[in-house]
Amino acid sequence: MASYQDAIDRIVAGNRVYAQKTTEKDPNAFVELSKGQAPEILWIGCADSRVPETTVCDCQPGELFVHRNIANTVHADDINVASVVEYAVAHLKVKKVVVCGHTKCGGANAALGDADLGVTLNTWLHPVREIRRKNKTELEKLPDDDARAVRIAELNVHQGIEVLKQHPAIKKAMNDHGLSLHGLIYDIGRGQLRLLEEAGAKKSNGLWSPN
Q1: Which entry of 46, 148, 167, 182 is annotated as an active-site residue?
Q2: Annotated binding residues
Q3: Same structural domain for residues 67 and 99?
Q4: Which of 64, 71, 144, 153 could form a disulfide with 101, with the two C-beta atoms 3.0–4.6 Å apart?
Q5: Is 102 a catalytic residue?
Q6: Is 133 assigned a catalytic role?
Q7: Residues 56, 27: one domain?
Q8: Which pLDDT tens digit goes with each residue over 137-162?
Q9: Do residues 67 and 167 lie in contact, with contact meaning Cβ atoms separated by under 8 Å?
Q10: Whole-prediction pTM value?
Q11: What is the pLDDT of residues 58-117, one digit of tens each?
Q12: Do 112 and 197 sit in the same domain of this protein?
């Protein structure tokens, strides 16, 4: 079994390879990045190690401004996500905000029941478990727990978007320059993103945005 130091050595060595390859491809890449950032998208995703947003979206450093947490949950009273949103929307002037859930999500799966995960995780996942309770009838009609966990992940994305719509910076940006919010699900087993359609939304350039 690899030791802790082996794991650190691996990422440091990997960084050297990345830096070398990037510089060989574009000698000015890091010089340009050091001048500042102007991402068009704020990505709110899950902390799951299998869903690295720049990798699965084939994006480069500087293209996505990112916040990740357990189960990509957006709490109305979470100053962490709120501060990321305010900075991205009010100061970086992103044009899109994405909330991305995924299949095989540990948080969504944990929300299927009420097992004691510890004080912090119990508190953090409480809103996701409330989604299960509010949608009990719909979820019980699904064939198995895998399908139920995916549906909880979808509903959690929709709830996150609804919470974001109440953020003052989001409201202002939507009114001032047409900021739009988008929900996605990443299918780990297929490596593909799926766009979630919102009720009362219209499709534009392949994305759904509020009317």
Answers
A1: 46
A2: 46, 48, 102, 105
A3: yes
A4: 153
A5: yes
A6: no
A7: no
A8: 999 999 999 999 999 999 999 999 99
A9: no
A10: 0.91
A11: 999 999 999 999 999 999 999 999 999 999 999 999 999 999 999 999 999 999 999 999
A12: yes
